[in-house]
Write a structure and sequence with these properties.
The chain has helices at residues 4-23, 43-52, 71-74, 87-96, 98-102, 113-116, 137-146, 159-166, 176-184, 220-229, 237-241, 247-257, 270-296; strands at 39-40, 59-63, 80-84, 106-110, 126-131, 150-158, 185-193, 198-199, 206-213. By secondary structure, the chain is α/β, with parallel strands linked by helices. It folds into two domains: 26-218, Rossmann fold (3-Layer(aba) Sandwich), CATH 3.40.50; 221-296, Orthogonal Bundle (Helicase, Ruva Protein, domain 3), CATH 1.10.8. The strands form two sheets. It has a seven-stranded mixed sheet. The chain starts with a helix and ends with a helix.
Length: 297
Amino acid sequence: MFHVKHLYYCYLLCKLTKNSVKWGFMKNIVAKKKYGQNFLKDEYVLEQIIQAMPNNNNKIVEIGPGLGDLTKYLVDVKSVEAFEVDADLCKVLQSRFENLIATNHLTLRCGDVLQNWKSRLLDEPYDLVANLPYYIATNIIQKALADENCKNILVMVQLEVAQKFCATSGDSDFGALSVIAQSVAETRLIVKVPPTSFDPQPKVDSAVFLIEKKSSRNDEIFEKFLRVAFAQPRKTLLKNLSSVYKKDELEKFFLDLGLTQTIRPHEVYISDYHQLYNLTRSLDATREHGAISSQRE
């Protein structure tokens, strides 16, 4: 006699077979070094990312969704636009999220996001939430900082990179990235992540950190100034800037701002960098005006 439990077993078998057909090929996916792929598998870390997301109505942009382990949480919260450069992973994502793509809750863009990212990635406000490929993480974050439609950045990167963006004056990690980011935003470390949270495991520790933007970075000359200021972190700030500006002029500026001549780049406050930059710009303007006057004569 055919019992009800036999029907239940048949149901389970059919469901298992269907899932195996649908997801079985994922076992054949091998992380590609050229794309810096390390798939995040730690459910605790994934939950920490979701909990740290700013509470707003912005769309979510995910760069490098991989196998969709973070994507599956993001689509439960908001609509998502995901950018994946790996054609093989795009096929996985298209199959895994077929229904969500059909209803436009998930938009999947296959290709290099940097090739399509001019001044604005989207024509609407969005938050960047992603486990970023390490080899392009800093570049992507800086583009997002400059993108006026990107309102917040919540990303997983190498711990060393996260510390540079979040460091404050006096920290050994405080540098040009710290000043650039914190001039237009508030930054904070969310959680440190060990290599065991990934498959395959990276050789370094990682971290999730948040950038809540107040405005967008748009002063390339200031950033060039910072690169000079931090060119040799162990040298004094005066020594570094003297490679571009006259030392006697800098000494006067340092005196006006209450900066010692022995102060090192990581010991200077962000506000002082802006004031020092404005003073050096006045020198540039004077020189440019002088050059123009000489040409007229």
